[in-house]
Design a protein that fits this description.
With 439 residues, the chain is an alpha+beta fold. The protein is built from 14 helices and 21 strands. The protein is 32% helix and 24% strand. The protein is globular.
Length: 439
């Protein structure tokens, strides 16, 4: 999967291709000192500054017409503390490299999202998460972080040092400073047994509370235009390791889930009327399977078919109603949706602007194939999500603004006050932050 590129004319684009910006210049600092100097120089020239990871956000969170900081030289593990069971890692490190390096050391994060292309700072700053009954987002596993603030100074924070900054900066959307280093809690590597099986949509909704309560990690995909879902349950296992055989893995995860799915989307894009039929076939293509492997091999999978995505966190008790409304809306509309709807959960956490802040949450994500008009579908879905006080993922498409966030985040004012203190000149401002946090 390629990352973002700056085109010949100096245009930066995100992975999905739905966001573009033209920075004045790019800086690729090799040290924290160089990064701090770049921020100070931008201030002298009165330019805005944004850091960009691999561009996996569908929002313009990282777009800038000022100085674009690329952290790809700020990578690697800085320190492993086996007594405290933490790992300190540079901000530009891709999650993929972190997961591989930890596995070599016999360590693992407790929970992770379903792709690992993003940088650790990009993933945590936007609130990237997987699914979990008891274990929360990647940001909730942070034990300390370091950031360069608007005046070029370096601030370290944790639960005991600058705790107010720590409460907010774990999911900071790039508004409080540029994260340079993160310390994560880790644990000895463990095995997960994954059980994937098709299940009727109505049965999943009827049994949702039990499926959530009985499994450490439960998620499912519903295929619009069908009454079918594919469920996935991941639970810790004593072993033995029993990975998916290589040929099966290639056939199911590459050939079907990426190759055939890509072709199906091309067909659906060319002839939208075929989409319900394709959905019926797709929803039956993947059969039940069970396998046992180390965490990142179970939690994550390759996503090569490009798409645009919207995701909202609703209170967990509202998810069944939300999904019924979503299905009814699709069924009575003339929309043609070729991508499954993904449903995951998270326990409440204590991060100021985390989508699960202070409430147990369920995530509902809607996707559209890249290049297909998505506005009608997303607008109708967003209307349903917001009726349940949904909180949008900071890195995924939404139209919400400051007034809305002040209503759905009890500690919203706490975050904006901290931003006023750390970045009074709005050095890290861009159009997206102006909309979601105010000017």
């Amino acid at each position: 999967m390629s990352t973002t590129v700056i085109g010949k004319n100096g245009t930066w684009r995100n992975w999905a291709g739905n966001v573009a910006s033209r920075p004045v210049r790019e800086v690729t600092p090799a040290t924290v000192e160089e990064l701090a100097a770049a921020v100070r120089q931008a201030a002298e020239e009165d330019l805005r500054v944004k850091a960009v990871g691999t561009g996996h956000s569908f929002t313009a969170a990282a777009a800038t017409d000022g100085v674009l900081i690329r952290p790809q030289l700020l990578t690697g593990i800085r320190k492993i503390d086996r007594e405290a069971m933490t790992v300190t890692v540079a901000a530009g490190t891709p999650l993929k490299r972190l997961n591989l390096a930890l596995a070599r050391e016999g360590l693992s994060l407790t929970n992770m999202g379903d792709i690992m292309e993003q940088t650790v700072s990009g993933a945590t700053s936007t609130g990237t998460h997987g699914t979990g009954r008891d274990s929360a987002s990647i940001a909730a596993q942070i034990r300390g972080l370091e950031l360069v603030t608007a005046d070029g100074s370096v601030l370290t924070c944790s639960a005991t040092e600058n705790p107010d900054v720590f409460a907010a900066a774990r999911v900071g959307i790039g508004a409080l400073g540029i994260v340079t280093e993160i310390t994560f809690a880790v644990e000895p590597i463990f095995l997960l047994t994954a059980r994937e099986e098709p299940m009727p949509f109505e049965r999943v909704l009827a049994e949702f509370d039990e499926l959530h309560a009985e499994n450490e990690h439960f998620e499912f995909y519903w295929f619009p235009h069908t009454g079918n879902t594919n469920t996935k349950r991941n639970n810790r296992s004593a072993g033995p390791e029993k990975p998916i055989p290589q040929l099966n893995s290639w056939f199911e995860d590459e050939f079907l889930s990426n190759g055939v799915f890509q072709v199906a989307n091309w067909v659906g894009q060319a002839v939208p009327a075929t989409i319900p039929t394709i959905a019926q076939i797709s929803s039956r293509a993947l059969s039940a399977r069970t396998y046992t492997d180390i965490p990142y091999k179970v939690f994550t999978s390759p996503r090569r078919v490009r798409f645009v995505e919207m995701e909202f966190a609703v209170p967990r008790e509202a998810v069944v109603d939300t999904l019924r409304e979503l299905k009814a809306m699709v069924d009575r509309s003339n929309l043609r949706v070729s991508f499954p709807v993904e449903v995951r959960t998270a326990p409440a956490d204590d991060i100021t602007l985390s989508t699960a802040s202070g409430r147990e949450s369920a995530y509902v994500a809607v996707h559209m194939f890249r290049g297909t008009p998505y506005q009608a579908y997303f607008t109708a879905a967003e209307r349903i999500f917001t009726a349940h006080e949904g909180r949008p993922h900071w890195g995924k498409v939404h139209t919400r603004d400051t007034d809305y966030f002040a209503k759905v985040y009890p500690r919203f004012g706490e975050f904006t006050a901290l931003r006023d203190r750390l970045d009074p000149e709005r050095r890290f401002q861009n159009d997206y932050l102006r909309r979601v946090l105010g000017a």
